[in-house]
TrEMBL record, chains A, B, C, D:
It comes from Brachybacterium endophyticum. It comes from the Bacteria. Pfam families: Cyclase. InterPro entries: KFase/CYL (IPR007325), KFase_sf (IPR037175). GO terms for biological process: L-tryptophan catabolic process to kynurenine. This is Cyclase. One of its GO terms (molecular function) is arylformamidase activity.
């Protein structure tokens, strides 16, 4: 497939748009999403990330860690007999050990970022000007639908490339249909925080075409782009970079899947409320599904 | 008032409880909260925090900043012609320039943390064991009610000490009543990120008693403890430390106040979804109010 | 002057050399340098750099700072009643507020680093492979000679461009001559930690030719490249990048100048002993002159 | 031995002294030290410390590391086609993987630091006021003498406690004698960057008494305090804290030992020139021995 045949939203909402597929979520979509809440059960879709000690004062506590770590922590010295205890966190947002939201500038294509802004204009050493995670800092609320590709707590075979027909089948199993602006949550039953040379399942370009056709607003997954990497990477280089579709990388979806299965209901209110820190390439996020 | 007369929840939910007043939020409270959503309008209650460049490579870009800063940012070197752009954030959670959630261990009293665990057992150089922000990492959803103490975009006089009767009057203006487990959002119209020697308004001990009597679950405010500091600090040393009531410090509530005034409705769905990072004294948060 | 006419040492010591003009210092040069020590007086040529608090626990201590700062400091929490006190430092080596040694890879020219290694081979996100400060980590000892261009505690006029004849005149004032491998210490009486748009004096290309002709091993200066910047920058893009001559940026030379003037002696033992940290683009250094 | 019987220099040079045993080094000592230089050979006594990548942009490069690490490194993003390459270092000074100098405030005894200043006055969250490494930032030059306790590249038995008689014997083997103000370099042939529960050899209290009687100015060792720890720790709690004798922890002395053996000469010029960063509990250092 040549580049010009790839699905794209460049230009769809203007040449300086920063919202991408978040344009598909309006007040009506949020109001509709809230109707999904019935019994008040809330589930986090984030991994529980344990920080690595950054300094820890004296050395003896040295312990094995994988570095770079997703989050490093310092407990701060606040004086003797401190009246308060504080700590500081160093966050490597895009680490595979931390659930996070990707902003469009995270993934340039051909030297430009969605929807066609030159990368050199978008990013400087002191932060991101265009296409940053500022697009999310008002929060995202919409209806979410879980497509569980490995039901009953199973996991996809290692070399799986998920196609459009797999998504159709999973959607049919839910007994619901999609509205423009819904978020899709895809469970493969995988922990992708693995060494790079290990194969992991992921989505095909075909599957990203499916997300586009259904006017999906946000992608949330415990799987994402397959390894070995495809060219172009369907989620990062097409969905994020060309469709302007925010990606939640490295979700933990087992709790969600069992909550859905218990209720035989695969739709819910999805809330994404990353910290309101400006000018970043992405932000840690704790997606909540509410039933 | 002697220490034994201060309001307390120590022991109310057991001697090792970590949830504090979040125990007051159950499925029914969350379901009831979702019913507040009608027109799908969502408002962030967080300050927009612009990071300070931590390294920024070469020195010439040196610019004035207040240090320690709430958030420091590095844009990372990912090789030449990088296929991805990333950045890292160093977050000083309890900084007055960042909207954040306080965990109970942030504020020891008499060498113990809620509900009576010795501080030395709760905190080590490598993180918080008891009373950390883990209590919030599943997310908090409940009904929120705005008490706007300075309506029409006004701000409280500098030396104000907010009392129970002020909260009663503000609640009466809303025309609604409180349920156990509701969150209270208090607007004084102030930016408290000020030099320490500047007076700022805050809540009296009496007002914290009011929060206790109404079984409030969470406090969100653009004001908090007054300066000069009271002894004990009503919110940090009584509400947080003795009631186990999580505090959202340094909210930005002007948008919320005008949204409420437009609708003449002061209740809403409140969602708090801080990053799921374990063992901290608090976490940055982006509270969302949904109408 | 076209690029091919610029002075160069590329190839002089082979195609993979990492020492550059440090090749000019041998045991005999070090032994000769030690003979400069007579009365045992030692002078530091480094600025005294006060760190900025990186976290400092609570926010109230916020103070104005220029960021990025040369050095950030955390005092660490080592538990209650700590048996030891420790701190950690974040060092932005090339900051204009910190005396430091530049390694050749700090300054690529035309995509290559001294003596012609492609930049992309020399540097990766995890450190410097070729042309790093490892060249200095065994320490540098040699004879140093101060050329004080603004005697009697004076300072150069702001727009001065120092030429070869200025160096000749200053050397003549010292009454000594240079040996191959000597280090040159140049005092202009300036603090160059200034906003970028302020003019500062510096060396001309002609002066760098003079350093080359005298087979100088190391450059130490309180002035360096002039601002507004020349093209190419004589010290960074010719002396460092083409001659492979390590530069000590941002020295503080007033104490040295008065020590020399008191003795009417402008030569001394110079010792550079930066921390032995591998794979960097430069290192902080505290040059000592011993008389 | 009761506390009052421990050797001490508290009060010897006044109640606010910050130099400790560095008072023993005067111009004459430095001039005498320089006479040790004959053939111009220079040897570093520092470990070569490879930094751990702090951020490294994308996560895939994650590699095993022991954390906290002695030094963390970021290669900085300086824009596209950067005209310069820079990096930043986070240094955990007192880590057992990094050669460093201890300042007296690093080790309080009974709530005070040398020579009797209350710890609470000496240290705040924003740095060290009294007893910091500022004492070293002018550089230290003196005569050094190597006492090789495990000649011929050997290493001490694991449980060795080095006593005064061992130092006497080693000194006798050198055929030289000590002058007040000399530095002692002690080689045990050990790498003490080991898990805390592994025994390592170290000095007895008796040996520290020997250092005191000989008016040693600085201690440099590849061994230091034994593990399991003695009470009080002879080097850290007596030599450093009571004698005010700076300690170089975690030296690498194999190169020095073979250089000495080759020459059958165990004395040399020792130079310590840590970065001139103010207000710290210690600093990384690259000790040089010159012959």
């Amino acid at each position: 497939m040549s580049t010009e045949d790839l699905p794209t939203n460049w230009g769809r909402w203007g040449d300086h748009d920063q919202l991408g597929t978040l344009n598909l979520i309006d007040d009506a979509a949020r109001a509709r999403a809230a109707l999904e809440v019935r019994d008040g059960v809330s589930v986090s879709l984030a991994r529980a990330t344990r920080p690595t000690a950054l300094t820890a004062g004296l050395s003896p506590v040295a312990t094995p860690a994988r570095m770079p770590a997703p989050v490093l922590q310092m407990v701060n010295f606040n004086g003797f007999d401190p009246h308060a205890i504080t700590d500081s966190l160093l966050i490597n947002t895009h680490n595979a050990g931390l659930t996070h939201l990707d902003a469009v500038t995270h993934q340039p294509v051909d030297g430009s970022v969605y929807p066609g802004v030159p990368l050199r204009e978008a990013v400087t050493p002191t932060g991101v000007g265009h296409g940053s995670a500022d697009a999310f800092t008002g929060g995202i609320l919409t209806r979410g639908v879980l497509l569980d590709l490995a039901p009953d707590g199973d996991s996809l075979p290692q070399e799986t490339l998920v196609g459009a027909e797999d998504l159709d089948a999973a959607l049919e199993r839910t007994g619901t249909s999609l509205h423009p602006g819904d978020a899709i949550v895809i469970r493969g039953g995988w922990d992708i925080d693995q060494p790079l040379d290990q194969a992991v399942p992921g989505l095909s370009l075909d599957a990203v075409g499916w997300l586009h056709e259904h006017d999906v607003s946000v992608y949330v997954g415990d799987i994402g782009d397959a390894r070995p990497l495809l060219t172009p990477m369907p989620l990062h280089k097409v969905a994020l970079a060309r469709l302007g579709m925010p990606l939640v990388d490295v979700a933990q979806l087992d709790g969600l899947a069992s909550t859905c299965a218990d209720r035989q209901r695969w739709s819910f209110l999805l809330v994404l409320a990353p910290p309101r820190i400006l000018g970043t390439t992405g932000l840690p996020v704790n997606p909540l599904a509410v039933f």
